[in-house]
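Chapter review. Work through the record for TonB-dependent receptor plug domain-containing protein before attempting the end-of-chapter questions.
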Amino acid sequence: MLSSLRTQKLLTSAVKLVCALILGGITEEVCYAEKGTRFPGIISFRKAPLENITGTVKDGKGEPLPGVNVLIKGTKTGTVTDIKGMFRLNLPTGNETLIFSYIGFKTQEVSVSGRNGLTVQLEEDAAALGEVVVVGYGTQKKASLTGAVATVDMKAVQDLPVSNLSAVLAGQLPGVGVSGGTSRPGENAVITVRNPIILSKDGGTLQPLYVIDNVVRSADDFNALDVSEVDAISVLKDAAAAIYGARSNQGVVVVATKRGKAGAPKFSYSGSTGISDATLPNMMNGVEQATYLNDMNNAAGKLATDPLIYTPDELAYFKDHNTNWLRQAWKPSTVQRHALNVSGGNEKATYFAGVSYNAQDANFNNINNNKWTFRASADMQVTRGLKAAISLSSYLGNKRMYYLKQGGENPENDIKSLLYTSQFNPPYVNGLPVLLSNSSNTNTIDAFNFFEVQNSNNYTQTKTTGFNVTANLEYTIPG
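Structure tokens for TonB-dependent receptor plug domain-containing protein:
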């Protein structure tokens, strides 16, 4: 009888245990065997002790941060802070480390160690600022962004050896095309968004609208910026650009320049130097070309006395008198850039100032471009809720170039003109320049000597200057 009752109790306890396991599920929490219970082949469990932890998460200014992820380290258990930045979490004993993460801030681990009523202050992460996208007259988190907006990874383009900001965007954004223009120093690249079209019968522009610090600017103002003074670049497409009206039908390039941050003065220098060169094609030398022309004319039935046939004496002369016109005119070009910035301030006022220098020359002599840019800005907390900001920027440019009959403003034509010049033609004879024509006819009115034009004072020098001042007041209504 006693044996039967004991068996019944064992079965009842076993059924309760199985039901508890099925209803409770499998958890990651620590379990312990209940003392004083003996079941053949059966162990009962109880949950590890839990500790109720509360706390508040704030930013560097002491403002509460809603939506911060709070995770128990080593588990998938966690919570998020409410609108007041507060959280509540049951923390198992023995696992007392919490992980706090939030977009735009550094992830932080905090050891609880029996404490309650925690106050956690998260530090802003400059590297995560790319998660915030500059859009029309404001910013927006990437996670909540639904429009067609492309953003530039500014870290990836800081050290590119380019002389204008348009060239920085090449290959960086989907749906954004960048063409090199004429590729001469000081010439800006051309930006197009998607596949632009002009609907006006009076013409128009295929270039997008440029907005710098919430002010509509020209393409020249955009290209005058140095990459070291730019904080973010976004390209708005389609409906995302509609906030700027009809002028945004070709897309909008939105730029936010760098501002000061509270703290001790911080200096930053960046510089780069690049060399632009090319592998030039190997053309026939003077003897090879003259021999080839002789073979062609002989096959056409020309006599040895024909003026088009080069004599053995002329071929011998060409062996010691050969000029590769393109190689003689060509040289590696250099691009250099230097930038120095400083920023700092306190809770009441911050400042930023920067200066940059860009220099670029061409693969032909006497073509170059130099540019200086300056920028300064200040942000002030005038009174509670009232902020003031002012920005000053300027640039100085100096571009020098010459104009050829053959090439004009296009260096490709200059290169072809030199490449196709027969190498048995010397550039000078008895100190006098040899004038050559690259025309298909026999007229010599367009004949010229490349080196004479290149080394003459027949060049154009263009100086550009710009100065911009913007100021704004922002008042936040309390409440």
